[in-house]
Amino acid sequence: MALLRLSESVIRGIRSPLVVLAVIAGLSARSASAQSVADENQVKAAYLLNFARFVEWPADVLAVSSPLIIGVIGDNPLDGALEDVLRGKSANGHPIQLRRLRWDELLLTTCQIVFISDSDEAHLPQILKSLTGASALTVSDIGRFSLRGGMIEFRMVGNRVRFDINRKTAIAARLDISSKLLSVARALHEESTTP
Fold it and tell me: How many domains does the chain have?
């Protein structure tokens, strides 16, 4: 619990999103015995918040001061950590709203970020197909997600939460990912295979 309180207080006290990314990377480097699933979920949730801050959406998708919507698909993904991290937060002047959605809901296309839990891996092809043409940043912890048509894939590397980015799918969705975010990615992909 001490690590959880530390990470929340550290994240709240830091103003620069890039510094937050560095702090999160440091927190995720703790030994495997010290990092619980709750800590892993806190790190992933904090990364989602910072993805919102380091990605630009087209003006016709995210108007000035309109809410940035994060849609979450799956069975209890991130175990409540996302609600804790996002409560009262904003990204570049956009208040953040969280929506829990089913994989087959039409509202998916109204989200700026869609997190797909590994519990919905069976529906991945349908989810990605439904988001074709939408400017939605797709994020998941499903294996090979960034090579299967997704944009950002969480990966455990040793005892650290890292992420891979597929730039090709992000560019196709008209998303501009900051070079600062690209520079801290574990891997950058320029291609996709079939889901």
Answer: 1
CB 75 within 8 A of CB 119: yes
End-to-end CA distance of the chain: 37
- Residue 21 pLDDT: 56
CATH number of the structural domain spanning residue 49: 3.40.50.2300
Contacts of 139 (CB under 8 A, 6+ apart): 48, 51, 113, 114, 115, 116, 150, 151, 152, 153, 154
Residue 195 lies in a domain: no
Residue 31 reports pLDDT greater than 80? no
Q: pLDDT per residue over 96-114, tens digit each?
A: 999 999 999 989 999 999 9
Domain region containing 164? 2-188
Q: Does any domain span residue 54?
A: yes
**For tokens 């800590």, what's the residue?**
39
